[in-house]
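re: ur question from earlier - yeah i can do the single chain one, its not a big deal. heres the input i used so u can compare w yours
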Amino acid sequence: MPPLKQQRHEQETTLKILVGRIPENIVNGLIYRNKPIDYFPALPVLPKILPSELLEQRPDIKAAEQNLLAADVNLKTIKATYFPQISLTGLLGFGSNKLNTLFTNSAETWQVDGNIAGPIFDFGK
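and the output i got, formated as tokens:
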């Protein structure tokens, strides 16, 4: 039985510190013990539906919303990897072995490249 009394004492002391009361006052009977429920004042009635603006201000709701948006972006990125990627590259310029013929019509050069890449094997991912 002494371990239970010690545990009760520790719990009461912790509770007293949390509620900001002096431990001796609570132990000496200044708290409400063995009182009927009608003795205590009634709690205020909360509205049945809380305004959404109030809920939007809660930090946990904001964090959950941001996590949902981040997950949506990640999902779109993952879906995009299943489609082929097409790229076109163009090059236009001048090329010559001699500096004095570099900017002539015969020195013009151009190149167009295309590339298509896509997943063939994803190994069940």
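Helices lie at 2-19, 23-30, 52-56, 59-80. not sure if urs matches, ping me
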